[in-house]
Amino acid sequence: MQKIMVCLKRVVDYNVRIRLRPDHSGVVSDGVKMSINPFDEIALEEALRLRERGLASEVFVVSIGPSDCQQQLRTGLAMGADRAVLVEEDGEVAPLTAARAFLKLVEREQPDLVLLGKQAIDDDCNQTGQMLAALWDRPQATFASKLEVNGGSATVTREVDAGLEVIEVELPAVVTADLRLNEPRYVKLPEIMKAKKKPLETLTLGGLGVEADTSLRTLAWNEPQERQKGVMVSDVPALVAALHDKGFFN
Amino acid sequence: MSKILIIAEHGDGRLNQSTARCVSCALQIDGAGADVLVLGDDCATVAAEAASLQGVARVLSVQRPENAAPLAAVLAPQVAALAAGYSHVLGPSTTFGKDLMPRVAALLGVAQVSDLMAVEGPRRFRRPVYAGNAIVTVEVAEGRPVVATVRTASFKPSTAGGAASIESVGSAAALPGHSRFVELRRGGGGARPDLQTARVVVSGGRGVGSEANFTLLYQLADKIGAAVGASRAAVDAGYVPNDMQVGQTGKIIAPELYLAFGISGAIQHLTGIKDAGLIVAINKDPEASIFQAADIGLVGDLFEIIPALERALG
Ligand SMILES: Cc1cc2nc3c(=O)[nH]c(=O)nc-3n(C[C@H](O)[C@H](O)[C@H](O)COP(=O)(O)OP(=O)(O)OC[C@H]3O[C@@H](n4cnc5c(N)ncnc54)[C@H](O)[C@@H]3O)c2cc1C
Asked: Which of A39, A155, B205, B298 could share a disulfide with B231, CB 3.0–4.6 Å?
């Protein structure tokens, strides 16, 4: 296998407790820690391991978003990616838009495998990989917890509601990573220094000839409904009484 | 007026309850109900089950050997072809629907509404983002089909009592041969109630400590007729199989009663149980954030509390 393309999304770090802006136009992002979407980080780790095992010769990372995405791409380079491509776009990037842009890059780069996270933890959409696979007319293996590449095909174990599903797909293909695919490595300081010298190319959506999809508009942001405050009980008999009181196990 | 197509989910020759929940969602979009599309290699039983749901107008069944396993790359072109003329195409937000529906949306050249949790109008919906920490209202532009996955925990299943017609339809869609189903390795549920439909769920976290200790939870569950769930930490540690994970990246469930043992209450876990009727938390740490989310909390050691509870309820 020659090339692996990995898509990285810049998102609010998963440890941050998000807050809505006072005018409810979105979430507060000023001064908030941003990171690579954790599922994408797992996707990158998997690509790097394939390269380290001699199963791929190049891993490049791609992100779509504002110029600040360079930080996450640099982190990806420090983890071990060979080069990076940023598709700069300041507006909202819907999954369909992202898939169209990734398709342009796929056509240019001809990767044998595209790896990305199964969902981004900001919009929780879980769409981009499937959409790219559809537009590219290639196989998809979503929610991967194990990936084996054997020549021109890959065997993927997928975490599905009923258990673990194994499928075999011909390459090139799109694989989306689930949490248990691997544990990403920590980046060491010398790698961060080295990453500064690795190539980072900047393109734009317009330059790629991609039109942003605007068919889905966000009209309002709201807090979720709060649950009523609960009660504490002191022991098992009190718990059982409370359960009986709520109509259970009578 | 809307014209709605629901993609049926099924396995082992049975209709999955997620389909009946999609029908309820469809009824909120348009009281006229929906058509249900069954794709399989042997659809008769499943199609009959779908036809008996209230709110189903018509069942379309596409029976082909290629449809034996639910491969998104194989099913999507058939769904996209049959979606012509429909204003809405809905699937469940289960791993089946999450895999398939975005592929359908992309073939139709439209966006997808993921995890539709409430209907505000025929093209206006609410859905959770940031692991349920914010809810957005979205609207799909006129003139194109709405493709959505339905957050099943937000809708009650439509009940039996319908009598829709069943039509066998052909599919001329060219199907790819690049994807092959190998096997399905079933998870840990066994004979217990299904996690996604159970009335009562007993769930364990890292605090349970080992695979062997999970026996305590299974025993309690069997005594009270409950399904068993787990936190991600418990799955990662190998105490239980992956299909038992509850949360943002596991199953989103809405049991009437959820009993959480040794689970700290991370937001990614809580988002999976937001719609539970009653949440009971047992944790030895009085500061655990699960107590903020619980309706009833008890501070204590699960290894003492579970046997005591089992005795009291037995
Ligand atoms: C992108 C992403 C997605 C995620 N998705 C999910 C998901 O879908 N589902 C999910 O669950 N998590 C998910 N997580 C992980 C989540 O953040 C937490 O790490 C996880 O839920 C913690 O599991 P836990 O509560 O079992 O473990 P811990 O946080 O370690 O808590 C263990 C608890 O057990 C208690 N305990 C220990 N011993 C006892 C005892 N003897 N008696 C009583 N109590 C005891 C402790 O006080 C503690 O509160 C996700 C994380 C990320 C980053």
From this structure: B205
Q: Name the token pair of B31.
A: 């009281």
Å from B233 to nearest chain A CA?
Answer: 11
What is the distance of C-alpha A24 from the center of its chain? 25
Q: Does A146 touch chain B (CB under 8 A)?
A: no
pLDDT of residue B178: 97
Candidates A138, A139, A159; nearest CB to B242: A159
In this structure, are residues B169 and A145 in contact, taking their beta carbons and an 8 Å threshold? no
Per-residue pLDDT tens digits for B73-110 = 999 999 999 999 999 999 999 999 999 999 999 999 99
Q: Which two tokens stand for residue A111?
A: 């990767």
Class of the CATH domain delimited by B4-168:
alpha beta
pLDDT in tens, A144-197: 999 999 989 999 999 999 999 999 999 999 999 999 999 999 999 899 999 999
Interface contact B251-A94, CB threshold 8 A: no
Of all protein residues, the one whose alpha carbon is nearest to atom 28 of ligand 1 is B264
Residue range(s) in chain B whose domain bears CATH number 3.40.50.1220: 200-313
Give residue ranges with CB within 6 A of ligand 1.
Answer: A 14, 38, 121, 179; B 205-207, 231-234, 245-250, 262-264, 266, 268-269, 272, 282-285, 288, 301-303
- A16 burial (CB, 10 Å; 0-12 / 13-18 / 19+) is middle
pLDDT tens for residues B33-60? 999 999 999 999 999 999 999 999 999 9
Q: How far is the CA of B228 from the centre of ligand 1 (A)?
A: 16
By Cβ distance, the residue of A135, A169, A218 closest to B138 is A218
Q: Does A90 touch chain B (CB under 8 A)?
A: no
CATH 3.40.50.620 holds for A3-222 = yes
**Residue ranges per domain, chain A?**
3-222
Whose alpha carbon is nearest atom 22 of ligand 1? B233
Fold of B200-313: Rossmann fold (3.40.50)
Over residues A206-215, the mean pLDDT reads 93
Task: Give the residue carrying structure tokens 């110029």.
Answer: A67
Residue A173: closest CA among A116, A225, A133, A228: A133
ipTM of predicted complex: 0.96
Enumerate the CATH 3.40.50.620 domain ranges in chain B, comma separated.
Answer: 4-168
**Using 50, 70 and 90 to split pLDDT, how confident is the model at B189?**
low
